[in-house]
């Protein structure tokens, strides 16, 4: 059974945005390393980090509050 949330579209947006940012980050990092462009490499790493943060936020939101 799937749990329903009131903000399902936000979770989907974070998931797709995170995956998109990781893909763009990988491509930019690879291009930056290939052409020895530190600016492009740094931009790629920033997109990778942004994608990872969005996915982690999505996972934390889906887990709910911790049981104490």
Written description of the protein model:
By secondary structure, the protein is an all-alpha fold. The chain has 2 helices and no strands. It has helices at residues 8-34, 38-63. α1 packs antiparallel against α2 (38-63). It starts with 7 loop residues before the first helix and ends in a 5-residue tail after the last helix. 13% of the residues are buried.
Number of helices: 2
Bin the strand percentage. under 5%
The whole-number mean of residue pLDDT values reads 84
The amount of helix comes to over 70%
Low-confidence stretches: none
- What is the terminal separation in angstroms? 25 Å
Structural class: mainly alpha
The number of strands is 0
Main sheet attributes: strand count, strand direction, barrel closure: none
Radius of gyration: 16 Å
Q: In sequence order, what are the helices and strands, one letter per element?
A: HH
Q: What global shape is seen?
A: elongated
Assembly state (oligomeric): single chain
Please supply descriptive tags for the structure shown above.
mainly alpha, elongated, 2 helices, single chain
What secondary-structure arrangement, pairings included, does this model have?
Layout: H1 8-34, H2 38-63
In short:
This protein has 68 residues and is mostly helical. Helix content is 78%, strand content 0%.
């Amino acid at each position: 059974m799937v749990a329903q949330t009131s903000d399902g579209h936000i979770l989907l947006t974070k998931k797709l945005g995170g995956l998109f940012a990781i893909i763009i980050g990988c491509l930019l990092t690879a291009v930056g390393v290939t052409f020895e462009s530190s600016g492009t490499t740094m931009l790629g790493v920033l997109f990778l980090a942004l994608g990872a943060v969005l996915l982690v936020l999505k996972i934390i939101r889906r887990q709910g509050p911790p049981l104490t």
